[in-house]
Description:
By secondary structure, the chain is an alpha/beta fold. 45% of the residues lie in helices and 14% in strands. The chain is globular and about 55 Å long.
Amino acid sequence: MLLQAISQEVTIAWMVAMEIDLRKSVTLNNGVEMPRIGYGVYLITPGMTERCVHEALSVGYRSIDTAQCYGNEREVGIAVRKSGRPRNEVFITTKLWGCSGYRDTQQSIDASLQRLNLDYIDLLLIHEPTGDVPEIYKAMEDVCRTGKLRAIGVANFLDDAYLRLVEQAEIIPAVNQVETHVFRQQASLRKLMKSYGTQPEAWSPLAAGRNGFFTQPVLTEIARAHGKSVAQVGLRFLYQQDIIIIPKSTHIERMRENREIEDFVLTDEEMQRITLLDKGKSLFKWW
Length: 287
């Protein structure tokens, strides 16, 4: 029994050691390093954003995901500056909203930079495939070459929209952020993106608690076996497939819990059981 216990401890230590590099970042297709776990601020009011981002940074998050239409870019920038952390230690993502073509996209990027009060944005995404996408993306490519953007990509571009863009883009999207969770796993889209070198990123990785996520029997059983929460199992399932995750919470205890997924590994059998939960449909009736 003693030898078995020692063996288990060694195995766990080895697994944790093997993930030291993985848990920090993923290398995007242009060489930029992006943290694999980020903090999302969707639906967090401007009045709460500064406090939430400050707390997220205090518990170890180094990637913050915002968007023009969230209305809280300014507060994200304030929190990052007040944190005292060097700019290169915090990865900032934001997303365009309402752009129609080349010129207004350039203006929109400058507006985000002003609201964030930053010299550059780490990752800029088109929030959805609307407007003159080729012209919008061309403007992003040109601004990226100036150094104001370290990487560019898209959000909510499913198979057809994604394929149309990459077939004419000069810079392949570094990231495609789409609804991804245990009930909508985006297997075909992820396979397509992999062939072009685009990194998948999950919005709403906890399915916003919909479809009985937090009481789902398979997730509950696996969580109990690992001494973890259902949320941690759902996040680990995505993380273990190299999908970037940006869970959101306004409570510091949950922020901390959502990051504590590197000290256990789901078995192949557990991964397969969760894979079977895929419904292939949006839970939000949006993209």
